[in-house]
Design a protein that fits this description.
Blueprint: H1 2-36, E1 39-43, H2 46-58, E2 95-106, E3 111-121, E4 124-146, H3 149-157, H4 168-173, E5 174-177, H5 181-187, H6 190-198, E6 203-217, H7 225-240
Antiparallel strand pairs: 1-2, 2-3, 3-4, 4-5, 4-6
Protein name: DUF3137 domain-containing protein
């Protein structure tokens, strides 16, 4: 009984602490909204509906091999096992059920939306963190993710490798996947490869999907203006090194 009481007290204490921290973060955000020309709403499921329409249009079964959601730090334990070659043809695309804490605006001059979505995928429900910067036009999906060099070499040797750019250092550290190899070659320029290899910010890669760019970075709370600005700048820096899309 004493142990259970202690656990209950810890849960209550943690929730109160999280609630107090969230209140401070929201106060900072509301101060910044008019200055930056941003908007904020607690919930707007029309974003989830737009997400689902895009996945119905741009999804292909092969993407289930390498699609992974970016997540806020507090939900970073979600894992998806890649389906087998036969199973992948029966995998439905991710489906958003709701959208929360939606922030919209521009930075710098590029439209963006930031939110958390409740996602259903492969019989699991999780939270996806979305900080999307608009691309000039819709484009084929691109998935770029850090990997271990030896794993990349082994996969390439057995014919299961990702797209190879011809930049040895980059190919050893990053996996590049997508349904259109010509577009992958268009995106991964020498300037972008060098940027991904040398930039000191903590992120594991990026994605292009439909008309948006996102990055795989560690964000505690996208409602924190300082975290959001840094995340947007990273995505814009990536887009700056990609030739014109569209």
């Amino acid at each position: 009984m004493v142990f259970m009481g202690l656990i209950t007290w810890l849960i209550v204490w943690f929730n109160r602490r999280q609630g107090a921290a969230a209140a401070v973060t929201l106060a900072k955000l509301r101060e910044e909204l008019p200055r930056r020309g941003w908007t904020y709403v607690e919930r707007d499921d029309s974003l989830a509906e737009a997400y689902n329409r895009q996945y119905e249009q741009f999804w292909s079964p092969e993407q289930s091999q390498f699609w992974r959601p970016n997540q806020p730090v507090w939900r970073s334990g979600f894992q998806v096992k890649a389906p087998g070659p036969l199973e992948q043809h029966f995998i439905r695309p991710p489906h958003a059920r709701s959208a929360h804490d939606i922030i919209t605006g521009t930075r710098p001059g590029r439209p963006f939306v930031a939110a958390t979505l409740e996602i259903f995928y492969m019989h699991q429900i999780t939270t996806e963190l979305c900080i999307w910067v608009r691309t000039p036009a819709p484009c084929p999906p691109v998935y770029v993710r850090q990997t271990v060099g030896m794993v990349s070499k082994i996969n390439a040797a057995v014919g299961q490798g990702d797209f190879r750019t011809g930049h040895p250092a980059f190919d050893d550290r990053f996996e590049v996947n997508g349904p259109d190899e010509r577009f992958l070659a268009h995106v991964i320029t020498p300037a972008l490869a060098e940027f991904l290899l040398t930039d000191e910010r903590r992120f594991r890669g990026f994605t292009l999907f439909a008309d948006r760019a996102d990055a795989l970075d560690r964000i505690r709370d996208h409602r924190d203006p300082a975290e959001l600005v840094a995340a947007l700048d990273l995505r814009c820096d990536i887009l700056d090194r990609i030739p014109l899309i569209g």
